[in-house]
Amino acid sequence: MPRFFSKPVVRAIIGTASWIPVIVFCLDHGYTLGSISGRSMQPTFNPDSNKL
Predict the structure, then answer these.
(1) Which residues contact 18 (CB under 8 A, 6 or more apart)?
(2) pTM
(3) I need a labelling partner for 46 at 20 to 30 A (CA). Which of 3, 4, 26, 52 fits?
(4) How far apart are CA 43 and CA 51, in angstroms?
(5) How far apart (Å, rounded) are the C-alpha atoms in residues 39 and 49?
(6) What's the distance, Cα to Cα, between the start and end of the chain in Å?
(7) What is the pLDDT of residue 29?
(8) What is the largest CA-CA distance in the chain?
């Protein structure tokens, strides 16, 4: 059994596959990538629009 894990390809596959639960957890608990549109949605990027 140890010879199986000593192969670089197998170790790379297992290492990559071990991150899948972490990615699924992050996506399920609110972390998403998306674009922001509209002036009211970008107050940090448009500081002049917040002045009265």
Answers:
(1) none
(2) 0.46
(3) 26
(4) 10
(5) 8
(6) 70
(7) 86
(8) 70
What pLDDT, in 10s, does the model give residues 1-52? 567 678 889 899 999 999 999 989 988 887 766 776 766 666 666 566 555 5
Residue found under tokens 């970008």: 42
Q: Which amino acid is at 27?
A: L
Q: What is the 3-state secondary structure (H, E, C) of 1-52?
A: CHHHHCCHHHHHHHHHHCCHHHHHHHHHCCCCCCCCCCHHHCCCCCHHHHCC
* Per-residue pLDDT tens digits for 36-47: 676 666 666 656
d(CA 11, CA 6): 7
Question: In this structure, what are the phi and psi dihedrals at residue 9, rounded to the nearest 5 degrees?
Answer: -65, -40
